[in-house]
Amino acid sequence: MKFIFVFILAVSALVVLHAESNDPFHQPKLKILIITGGHDYDRKPFYEVFNAIPSITFDTLVHPHVNELIASPDIDAYDVLIFYDMGVSILPQHQQAYIDLLNKGKSMIFLHHSLVSYQSWPEFIRIVGGQYHTEPVVVNGDTLNANYEHDVTIPIKVEDKRHPVTKGIRDFEIFDEIYSDVEILPGVKPLLSTTHPKSMRYVAWINHYGNSDVIYIQLGHGQTGLSNPNFRKLLRQAIEWSAVKHKRAN
Ligand SMILES: [Zn+2]
């Protein structure tokens, strides 16, 4: 009798295990950390983007507590760090924490105005692959005087339609904010571009840094951009690809 009971218990456990391994709804969810602060944003449409992604759970972290946590072992709990912040100053030990994480292969995705962060930290542009400089800079003989414009219809071309981050996305239009005269490093792998004459040419890219493939997406200022289905698909695929690619680091 006892044997039969143990046997039934074992079979039930196997059935549960089997169900969990085959059912996508029982896959462990990716743990995301969403970092904000330093710049206003429209909270409702922003968090709706993440609430609509079934494969993730997320925590939020706001400046000025961001870089202390990034430099602590607690950061290891997260599969992907998403930056929608605009950091101003950063201590040398916190700079090193970013570099150490990226050397280990941590997954980082930078969105929209995070391109303006850390103007006086020269390594930041090498991490993200580009920077919106708040003061004019001369790059290869050209003076870049970065600027922005809201409420623009932007034609978007998908540069690599087979890449897992852009897969299934056709060229599209989005009503969003543009940035102009942004410095983009020549080594980035473009994902999206635009021919809009006032916009920076590439509006999403991958930048290899350390052992990480950092993703930057310029789109996503407010309601219209954040609710665009192509933007949402791009961000979901960016999170899922980045998490899998960097799994060994987490
Ligand atoms: Zn904006």
Q: If you had to describe this structure to a student in words, what would you say it looks like?
A:
The chain is α/β, with parallel strands linked by helices and 250 residues long. The protein is built from 7 helices and 13 strands. A 9-stranded mixed sheet has the order 2-1-3-4-13-12-11-8-9. Helix 2 links the parallel strand 1 and strand 2. The longest helix is centred in the first third of the chain and has 21 residues, at 2-22. The protein is globular. The termini are far apart. The model is unreliable at 5-21 (pLDDT under 50). Zinc ion (ZN) binds next to loops. Zinc ion binds at residues 112-113, 177, 221.
The number of strands is 13
Give the rounded overall mean pLDDT. 92
The kinds of small molecule bound in this structure are:
zinc ion
Lateral arrangement of strands in the main beta sheet: 2-1-3-4-13-12-11-8-9
